[in-house]
Amino acid sequence: MRIFLKKILGWALIPAVLSCSFYGFAEKREEAGEYELKGAFMVKFFPFITWPKKIFSNPKTPIVIGIIGKDFFGSKFTKMIADKNKLIDKWKFVIERFKQNAPITVLQGCHFLFISSSIARNDMKKIIDSLKDHPVATFGDVKGFCSLGGIINLVIIKEKLKFEINKGAADRLGIRFHSQLLKLAINLSGEKYDK
């Protein structure tokens, strides 16, 4: 089901909001903490992603953002989510924090899963591979994350926060991105990775 941004935040023009959201709101690292910005990016991705219909068949289903490994987001991210939930009638956000050895069945219940850079690359790959049959949008912020099979990688380039999308991995899970979001990605899977 496509969940349009205007239904959630009251904005009507997707391209304008994308431009404002990703290149205006959260670009400069100096204006806010790095992980505060990365958290904001994750939240802002939601309206531009379509999951398989069964995932949000119930409008009361919360949007689960999982964080596995060391949590660099902290309490500010928790507060931001709480503030965001006050503005939304349905599809509330919930944050779940997991230790690295969390059962895969628990991780499968996430919609977004941020895999912390504290986790070794080979373990990241194991986590991603274990979710290959479940529509979980995996996020990371390490070089080559998408080449491990991750779906969205948040990267810092010239002091600005950008993102890469592994469209092939997302397609295999039935996760679709709005075309405007794809246009803003600095890399898509199969193209020039690891700048």
Your description of this structure?
This protein has 195 residues and is α/β, with parallel strands linked by helices. The protein has one domain (5-188): 3-Layer(aba) Sandwich (Rossmann fold). It has helices at residues 5-9, 14-25, 34-45, 74-86, 104-107, 121-130, 167-173, 179-184, and strands at 49-50, 63-68, 93-98, 112-115, 137-140, 152-157, 160-165, 176-177, 187-188. The strands form 2 sheets. Strands 3-2-4-5-6-7-9 form a 7-stranded mixed β-sheet. A two-stranded antiparallel sheet has the order 1-8. Helix 3 runs parallel beside helix 4 (74-86). Residues 1-31 and 190-195 have low confidence and may be disordered.
What key attributes describe this structure?
single chain; seven-stranded mixed β-sheet; alpha/beta; disordered C terminus; globular; Rossmann fold; 195 residues; 9 strands; 35% helix; disordered N terminus; two-stranded antiparallel sheet
Quick structural summary:
The protein has 195 residues and is α/β, with parallel strands linked by helices. The protein has helices at 5-9, 14-25, 34-45, 74-86, 104-107, 121-130, 167-173, 179-184; strands spanning 49-50, 63-68, 93-98, 112-115, 137-140, 152-157, 160-165, 176-177, 187-188.
Q: How many DSSP-defined strands?
A: 9
Report helical residue fraction: 25-40%
- What order do the helices and strands follow? HHHEEHEHEHEEEHEHE
* Overall structural domain count: 1
How are the strands of the biggest sheet laid out side by side?
Answer: 3-2-4-5-6-7-9
Which regions are unreliable across 5 or more consecutive residues at pLDDT < 50? 1-31, 190-195
Q: What is the CATH class designation? A: Alpha Beta
Mean pLDDT, all residues:
81
Assign the CATH architecture: 3-Layer(aba) Sandwich
Distance between the termini: 33 Å
Question: How would a crystallographer describe the biggest sheet?
Answer: 7 strands, mixed
Class from helix and strand fractions: alpha/beta
Rg for CA atoms? 15 Å
The amount of beta strand, in percent, is 15-25%
Number of helices: 8
